[in-house]
Design a protein that fits this description.
- This protein has a domain at 14-99 and 176-286: P-loop containing nucleotide triphosphate hydrolases (Rossmann fold, 3-Layer(aba) Sandwich).
- The chain contains ten helices and ten strands.
- The protein has helices spanning 60-67, 90-97, 115-126, 131-144, 160-171, 190-207, 218-224, 242-247, 251-257, 274-286, and strands at 20-31, 34-45, 49-54, 75-80, 83-84, 100-103, 178-182, 210-214, 227-232, 235-240.
- The longest helix is centred in the last third of the chain and has 18 residues, at 190-207.
């Protein structure tokens, strides 16, 4: 673990100069005929913490699904360490997924398993290790998130913040190279949020991970990210370091960062004029 008092990551880490570990090239995708992302390019350098931010429904979680190949692009390429995921057969795809760890938005712990058994699950499922080795590995992962002493508790006996940390220990159980975080700060109190943010940064650096963080929380995310990508209106509208995003004049990014209630993202969903709608309703009722 790194020293919690250590300075925040530099604006231009060495990782950004390396070859992308994850890359989306001119990707268009959606659900059925509904296109969510159109012709986007995203590069995640090895060793970096990259944040995906933007409006709800902008396609952030869709990017995670593309990387896990739960969703195939309509066009373009999704590459992991230079390999196009679309070219992988079932066995090679599963091998690629074992290089990834996933922290779901609400933890997604198995409610009938103890904290220990939740973290042990991927080790028992995907390795031939003996129980003595599994025990040591589980305790190491729980110790990394500060919960070695909670190993015998059930998910119903721990807080939401603790559940998220147990889920993180489970996600790193197989020593992944890539960590995907889907709203890791959602629903957490300020203390738990700060702990979660620090763990993401420290684990990324200590374990040599590459991390992609989907988040709406500007302050915590900007503290730990090396690079920020803003998604909106089906594309990448802005990207850069947190400092660059704070200084940008882009109206959509300014609205998001400053939490402005109105701007490019409107409160009202596009609709016909109110007077026209009511007249139409009245004519329909009269008929």
């Amino acid at each position: 673990m790194t020293d919690p008092s250590a300075p925040a990551p530099s604006a231009e880490p060495a990782a950004t100069a390396s070859k992308p570990f994850v890359e989306l090239r001119r990707v268009t995708c959606g659900y059925g005929e509904r296109v969510i992302l159109r012709d986007i390019d995203i590069a995640v350098p090895r060793g970096a913490v990259v944040a995906l931010m933007g409006t709800s429904g902008g396609g952030k979680t869709t990017v995670l699904r593309l990387i896990g190949r739960q969703l195939d692009p309509m066009s373009g390429q999704v590459l992991l360490d230079g390999t196009d995921l679309a070219t992988l057969d079932r066995e090679r795809l599963y091998a690629a997924r074992r290089r990834m760890g996933m922290l779901f938005q609400h933890g997604a712990l198995f409610t009938d398993l103890s904290v220990f058994d939740n973290v042990a699950f991927p080790l028992r499922e995907h390795t031939d290790l003996g129980e003595a080795m599994i025990r040591d590995l589980v305790l190491m992962k729980l110790n990394a998130v500060g919960l070695r002493g909670a190993r015998d508790l059930m998910p119903s006996q721990i807080s939401g913040g603790m559940s998220r940390r147990v889920a993180l220990a489970r996600a790193i159980a197989l020593d992944p190279e890539l960590m995907l975080y889907d709203e890791p700060f959602a629903g957490l109190d300020p203390i738990s949020m700060g702990v979660a943010a620090r763990l993401i940064r420290e684990l990324n650096d200590a374990l040599g991970l590459t991390s992609l963080v989907v988040s709406h929380d500007v302050e915590e995310t900007f503290l730990i990210a090396d690079h920020v990508v803003f998604l909106a209106n089906g594309g990448v509208v802005a990207q850069g370091t947190p400092a660059e995003m704070r200084a940008t004049d882009d109206p959509l990014v300014r609205q998001f960062v400053d939490a402005q209630p109105d701007g490019p993202v409107r409160f009202q969903h596009p609709a016909a004029a109110v007077a026209d709608d009511f007249r139409i309703d009245q004519r329909s009722a009269a008929a």
